[in-house]
Amino acid sequence: MVRRLARIAALVPLLMVGIGVLGTSPDWFPAALILGVLTVALAIAVLMATATKGWVFFAGLTIGLAVVLGSGLIFRAALMQSRGQPTEVRIISVYTTKGKTGPIYHCRLKRTDGRPMDHANIVGMGCNATEDAGTSEDLLVDQSGWLDPQPVDADFSPLPVGVVGVGVAIGLRELAVWQTRRIGLREAAANPTAPGRTSAKPSADNRSKKRKRR
User: Fold this and answer.
1) Contacts of 209 (CB under 8 A, 6+ apart)
2) 138-178 pLDDT, tens per residue?
3) Residue ranges of region Disordered (predicted)?
4) What torsion, rounded to 10 degrees, do the Cα atoms 6, 12, 13, 17 define?
5) CB under 8 Å, gap of 24 or more: what pairs does 171-177 form?
6) What CA–CA distance (Å, rounded) separates 25 from 92?
7) Which of 10, 109, 171, 195 minimizes the number of CB atoms within 10 Å of its CB?
8) Can you tell me whether residue 151 is helix, strand or coil?
């Protein structure tokens, strides 16, 4: 049982990376948020079932969030770096919502070249007042339509550092899985008659009772 749980826990980072990538699209972000919370919770539960140690919970939570969020940020930066193109857009309408520190401005965009534009609603990035309606600016637009627009001067230089960071986080998670597996196997060996475990050999008393019945 411990080995089976450890194998499941070792494969969870693949699911975490996939959910992080899925969440980079505004269309899929709500679903990815729910899946991410459930996956991190499941990963922690599997680790806790493998070895009941207090540090397992905190390690699973911290590393799980780092893998999900980090993989999403890396994919977003890499995709925009490869497919993003500076594009002139026009703010066609502005509306506000109430925020904690003041109004939040939401702008509706349209490409000046007349081509259709995905994720045309933005907050910030030149959308700072109702008077901005009718003005034009340049934004970095993903030509595949997966990502929402970003500032044209977005900095992608930290991308290699992010890749290394996520790789380290995945490595630490696999190390935690290996450690919990060792602890779980040691606990199972020390307490073979615990709930859910059965003794592999019949006891001497049971063998003697069977002989008497014969």
Assistant:
1) none
2) 999 998 899 999 999 989 999 999 999 999 999 998 888 88
3) 188-214
4) 170
5) 172/59, 172/63, 173/12, 173/13, 173/59, 173/60, 173/63, 173/64, 173/67, 174/10, 174/13, 176/47, 176/56, 176/59, 176/60, 176/63, 177/6, 177/9, 177/10, 177/47, 177/50
6) 23
7) 195
8) strand
CA 116 to chain centroid: 30
Give the rounded percent of residues in the chain with a pLDDT score beyond 90: 46
DSSP string, 160-176: HHHHHHHHHHHHHHHHH
Q: Residue 39 corresponds to which tokens in the numbers above?
A: 């996956």
Which residue type does 134 have? G
Q: In 10 A of CB 188, how many CB atoms?
A: 16
Distance CA 4, CA 16 (A): 19
pLDDT at 210 > cutoff 80? no
Q: Two tokens at 151? A: 């500032």
Q: Length of the chain, please? A: 214
97: pLDDT strictly greater than 70: yes
Residue type, 193: T
